Amino acid sequence: MEYVESLLEEYYGLSLAFEEGTQSLGNSEAIEQLLAIEEEICWEVSLPVSESNRNLFRLIGKGKTITKYVNESLEKLEMARLQYAYDRRAFASKFVKAA
After folding, report:
1. Pick from 11, 2, 9: nearest CA to 33
2. 51: phi > 0 → left, psi -120 to 50 → alpha, else beta; which?
3. How confident is the model at residue 95 (pLDDT cuts 50, 70, 90)?
4. Which of 20 and 14 is assigned the larger pLDDT?
5. Model confidence at 94: pLDDT above 80
6. How open is the CA angle 92-96-99, to the nearest 5 degrees?
7. Range list of β-strands (E), the chain
């Protein structure tokens, strides 16, 4: 999880740079970097890369500290991962029962 924490910290920093205007939204390299970090976070916690999973950590509230952001994001990602794993098992068990 340390790697995911470092990715979230990097994501937080880049997001703040956009928010504060030090990074331009026209800077496609920075946008690509944000998207790559989003993808990596999803893969690292075994979630599909989807809009809903990206939104678990994408939205950073005003005035939220990096520590609070990272902790809340990790909690949301863990809950989503558990739900995803449960849903996959439930889906697979339907096929086992049918056979």
Report:
1. 11
2. alpha
3. low
4. 14
5. no
6. 140
7. none
Q: Per the structure block, which two tokens stand in for 53?
A: 């999973």
Residue 7, number of CB atoms within 10 A of its CB: 20
Give the count of beta carbons closer than 10 Å to the beta carbon of residue 10.
Answer: 15
Query: Under a CB-based contact definition with an 8 Å cutoff, are residues 12 and 63 in contact?
Result: no
92 versus 54: which is more confidently predicted? 54
* Separation between Cα atoms, residue 39 and residue 53, nearest integer Å: 10
Q: Which of 61, 35, 72 is nearest to 50 (CA)?
A: 35
C-alpha closest to that of 36 among 21, 5, 14, 67? 14
Residues 6+ apart with CB under 8 A from 53: 42, 47, 80
CA distance 21 to 76: 28
Give the pLDDT of residue 26.
Answer: 63
